[in-house]
Automatic annotation (TrEMBL):
<keyword id="KW-0238">DNA-binding</keyword>
<dbReference type="InterPro" id="IPR010095">
    <property type="entry name" value="Cas12f1-like_TNB"/>
</dbReference>
<feature type="domain" description="Probable transposase IS891/IS1136/IS1341">
    <location>
        <begin position="200"/>
        <end position="306"/>
    </location>
</feature>
<comment type="similarity">
    <text>In the C-terminal section; belongs to the transposase 35 family.</text>
</comment>
<dbReference type="Pfam" id="PF07282">
    <property type="entry name" value="Cas12f1-like_TNB"/>
</dbReference>
<dbReference type="GO" id="GO:0032196">
    <property type="term" value="P:transposition"/>
</dbReference>
<dbReference type="InterPro" id="IPR051399">
    <property type="entry name" value="RNA-guided_DNA_endo/Transpos"/>
</dbReference>
<feature type="domain" description="Cas12f1-like TNB">
    <location>
        <begin position="320"/>
        <end position="384"/>
    </location>
</feature>
<dbReference type="Pfam" id="PF12323">
    <property type="entry name" value="HTH_OrfB_IS605"/>
</dbReference>
<comment type="similarity">
    <text>In the N-terminal section; belongs to the transposase 2 family.</text>
</comment>
<feature type="domain" description="Transposase putative helix-turn-helix">
    <location>
        <begin position="28"/>
        <end position="72"/>
    </location>
</feature>
<dbReference type="GO" id="GO:0003677">
    <property type="term" value="F:DNA binding"/>
</dbReference>
<keyword id="KW-0479">Metal-binding</keyword>
<dbReference type="GO" id="GO:0006310">
    <property type="term" value="P:DNA recombination"/>
</dbReference>
<keyword id="KW-0233">DNA recombination</keyword>
<dbReference type="GO" id="GO:0046872">
    <property type="term" value="F:metal ion binding"/>
</dbReference>
<keyword id="KW-0815">Transposition</keyword>
Length: 408
């Protein structure tokens, strides 16, 4: 039975095409993270910074929860900083001066942000910090002194720590305003910051591509480009499962358990890093290919139903993929359109629009009654592109490449 189905979908408005033709420079916040290797003196100082920061966070959190519960008043963490200054002058709490003032104050400001997010419904109620968690502190860099403290790719100096031995894996552009120092559960140290950067939009490709998500290839485009599904991701995931299984056999709290816990944390980090690395390369490659990218919507329930797909990259990975495409598209002046994922994109012929009844997942190639022979994934990607661009002037997605109307 043949039916024509693909004509129904939401119409992207023409405004977005016109917006695309304006080629402004965009200012973005790019985040950088680098590993670093502290000296033993720095490690000691960092333990103090983390510990005191935790104390300030927890004490302030307990205080404001108490005041709220017993007096019904909301106090801010900034109110607490007045107390903190007084405490530092007492004999009993003089040790607070061992930590740098900027990290402690920043902890208080961060707690205010955490409460703001909680009241806005964006986050859960702030929690007490424990020593077993990943640790972090933040330093505000004074713009007047930053020249002596930071030079991209060369050095970073922080109060009470001095020069940090950073592994500069790339050279940031711009100047950071805030630096976060972290220690993960595996005991590794890192530095993270954001830099403001001005981007020149990429020369806009006049074409659009549809993107189909899958298992054999994570991404297949309507132009026949296939990303593959890197084996190393699977290997790392297998290693992670193995270390986790071993951890569950250890007696909780024992020396061997702790040692294994570090191994699990390291394996986690390795999976995350390789996946992130691969995703960044993939999404950048996609953005460079087209002026418009069309993709299916991801929905959590749908992903759960499609176990194979979510297992291929992990639920987080799929959402991360979409997130990266979305923000990179915005950065580089490329348009990103999403289409309903329940449209029968695999079963529809992208040449004549006929919909076939059913198709097994193992069918990789099929031919339509109209004579077209399809690669399953490329055909699906073409349909996604068509759904995203139907009704637009200049669209010619069926069997071909969609051309954007370029307004001079
Ligand atoms: Zn056909």
């Amino acid at each position: 039975m043949l039916t024509h189905h693909l004509a129904t979908c939401h119409r992207p408005n023409r405004m977005s095409i016109e917006a695309m033709t304006k080629r402004d420079f965009t200012t973005i916040q790019r985040s950088y993270t680098f590993r670093f290797y502290p000296t033993s003196a720095q490690r000691q100082q960092l333990a103090i910074e983390f510990g005191h920061g935790r104390w300030v966070w927890n004490t302030c959190l307990a205080w404001r929860s108490y005041v709220y519960r017993h007096r019904g008043q909301s106090v801010s963490a900034v109110d607490f900083s007045g107390h903190l200054t007084k405490l530092k002058k007492t004999a009993a709490y003089g040790w607070l001066k061992e930590a740098s003032a900027t990290t402690l104050n920043q902890k208080l400001r961060d707690q205010d942000t955490a409460f703001k997010n909680f009241f806005a419904g964006r986050a859960k109620y702030p929690r007490f910090k424990k020593r077993a968690h990943a640790q972090s502190i933040r330093y505000q860099l004074d713009p007047r002194q930053v020249a002596g403290r930071y030079r991209a790719g060369e050095f970073l100096k922080l109060p009470k720590l001095g020069l940090l031995k950073l592994k500069w894996s790339r050279k940031p552009q711009g100047i950071p305003k805030m630096v976060t120092v972290t220690q993960d559960c595996a005991g590794r140290y890192g530095v993270a910051f954001m830099c403001e950067e001005t981007l020149q939009p990429l020369p806009r490709e006049p074409n659009g591509i549809g993107v189909d998500l899958g298992v054999k290839d994570i991404v297949v485009t309507s132009e026949g480009w296939k990303s593959g599904n890197p084996r190393h991701l699977r290997t790392h995931t297998r290693q992670l499962t193995k270390t986790q299984r071993r951890l569950s056999r250890r007696r909780k709290g024992s020396v061997r358990w702790h040692r294994q816990r570090v191994r699990v944390a390291k394996a986690h980090a390795r999976v995350k890093n390789t996946r992130q690395d691969w995703l960044h390369k993939l999404t950048t490659a996609l953005i460079r290919q087209a002026g418009l990218i069309a993709m299916e919507t991801l929905n959590v329930k749908g992903m759960m139903a499609n176990r194979r797909l979510s297992k291929a990259l992990g639920d987080v990975g799929m959402h991360e993929l979409k997130r990266q495409i979305e923000y990179k598209a915005a950065w580089y002046g490329c348009e990103f359109v999403q289409v309903d994922r329940w449209a029968p994109t695999s079963k529809t012929c992208s040449v004549c629009g006929a919909v076939i009844d059913a198709m097994l997942l193992k069918v990789r190639q099929w031919s339509c009654e109209c004579g077209a022979v399809h690669d399953r994934d490329i055909n699906a990607a073409r349909n996604i592109l068509r759904l995203a661009t139907v009704g637009r002037t200049g669209s010619d997605a069926r069997g071909g490449v969609y051309k954007l109307e370029v307004v001079a």
